[in-house]
Write a structure and sequence with these properties.
Largest sheet: 7 strands, mixed, barrel
Number of helices: 13
Shape: elongated
Distance between the termini: 93 Å
CATH architecture of the largest domain: 3-Layer(aba) Sandwich
Bound molecules: zinc ion
CATH superfamily of the largest domain: P-loop containing nucleotide triphosphate hydrolases
Length: 438
């Protein structure tokens, strides 16, 4: 049977099916058609007979706040609100669909408001820029994306190369020339002298962006989300004194330390400090305290984590020291266990896997715990590694076996040819590996 549609554009039988409650996010860079897609969906839902209400932030008065506007001129009526909480007061009891445009300009409570609306049986559709011109998470978008049931990650065309663009470039227009905006420029655009463009990863430029470790996008988003959550916690916090927070953080760390020092494996005579659940709670509390302390001190998690990671990688400073003192025939590292021996080098590589080691001086990037039993049976005369400190696995193994070990050489596996004769010497904390050339 061919279904005939009743007169008009409505599809009344759809209306009898309850709306699917949940949160849908439409995101992407500028000119990716987010608002256009939002309007398309809202019109469709309207035709289905759903009651739709749309909201825009009051901050966005670029094209009048009382409608959702797309780049190609389509519009949909909307109510402009000053805060995300205000939306709840406007939503009528029989509304099926709540749409929010320019969501990036809303406050950090927007994800909670969306969750409340979805819990009330409504379909929530949110559209917004996920990254600001600096390439960092924009307002509450990172958290909204985590909260979303469905996501439409849209792309635009790069203004420079025409390939697919995922970023928003901000440019200053000076004498007709388009110059990339600086990282430290304010987030809100001056429409007279500035503009936004869609750019691909390669053509997105942010002069002055702090150098450091580039965090994986997912980590950056998660940190952006934590930053948002912390900000909203601090808003309700009536004891924001830094000294109080520092004390609290300190006592939480002390509490978690008890769990660590009372670990049966580390300290068999200690009585246990509590349950595993209590320990997890203690870590969670430390993290929350630390984050709110950082928030009250105006320190960015992202920056702190990036700098911390960078430092961690460069801790490799030990490696750098070792490399600085290296010569053509000598490599230095730290002594994990002392002793002077010589022997033939077995240099671990794809060709010479660690599992096939039988005898000689083991030269490896690192040693994993699952290899330890192999070396108890095939004992090396000495161990030399690229990575690892004096408490690393090769160090523990060497002490156990009573053989000399030099760790953290940086590049022993590169500099020592497989099968060559090497001499191992240890002087205090300094370990020296010499290539014996005949
Ligand atoms: Zn491009």
């Amino acid at each position: 049977m061919i279904e005939s549609r009743p007169e008009g554009s409505k599809i009344p039988h759809q209306k009898d099916i309850p709306i699917q409650a949940g949160i849908e996010v439409i995101c992407g860079p500028t000119f990716s058609g987010k608002s256009n897609e939002l309007i398309r969906r809202l019109r469709y839902l309207g035709h289905e007979g759903r009651k739709v209400q749309a909201f825009t932030p009051k901050i966005d008065n670029r094209r009048g706040g009382d409608s959702v506007n797309s780049e190609d001129g389509a519009t949909f009526p909307a109510t402009s609100v000053a805060s995300s909480r205000e939306i709840l007061g406007h939503v009528e009891s029989d509304t099926d669909v709540v749409a929010i445009d320019e969501a990036q300009f809303f406050d950090s409570e927007l994800p909670d408001v969306c969750r409340e609306l979805a819990a009330g049986g409504r379909q929530v559709i949110v559209a917004g820029l996920d990254k600001n011109f600096r390439g960092e998470p924009f307002g509450p978008m990172a958290r909204l994306k985590l909260e979303a049931d469905g996501m439409d990650s849209r792309r635009a065309a790069c203004k420079i190369c025409g390939r697919s663009a995922t970023r928003t470039q901000r440019v200053k227009i000076i004498n007709g020339e388009r110059i990339p905006a600086n990282y430290s420029d304010p987030t809100i655009l001056d429409e007279g002298t500035e503009a936004y463009e869609a750019r691909c990863r390669d053509h997105h430029e942010v002069p002055g962006k702090p150098e450091g470790v580039v965090l994986p996008e997912s980590v950056e988003e998660a940190l952006g989300w934590l930053e948002e959550v912390t900000k909203s916690i601090l808003k309700k916090e009536d004891r924001p004194e830094d000294f109080f927070r520092a004390l609290l953080t300190g006592s939480q760390i002390g509490d978690a330390m008890k769990y660590i020092t009372h670990d049966k494996k580390l300290n068999p005579r200690a009585r246990p400090h509590g349950t595993r659940e209590d320990e997890i709670l203690a870590y969670g509390q430390i993290m929350m305290q630390l984050m709110t302390l950082m928030g009250s001190r105006g320190i960015s998690f992202k920056e702190a984590v990036a700098i911390g990671l960078k430092n961690q990688f460069e801790l490799d400073w030990k490696k750098k020291d070792a490399l600085a003192n290296a010569t053509e025939s000598q490599i230095e590292g730290r002594v994990a266990h002392p002793g002077n021996v010589s022997g033939q080098a077995y240099v671990v590589s794809e060709e010479h896997p660690i599992e096939e080691f039988v005898a000689g001086v083991l030269v490896a990037p690192f040693v994993k715990p699952d290899h330890m039993s192999h070396f108890r049976l095939n004992t090396p005369v000495a161990i030399v590694t690229d990575h690892g400190g004096v408490n690393s696995h090769p160090a523990i193994l060497a002490r156990e076996l009573g053989i000399p070990a030099i760790v953290g050489t940086g590049n022993a596996t590169e500099k020592i040819p497989h099968g060559s004769e090497v001499m191992i010497e240890t002087k205090d904390k300094k370990g020296i590996v010499t290539l014996v050339v005949e």
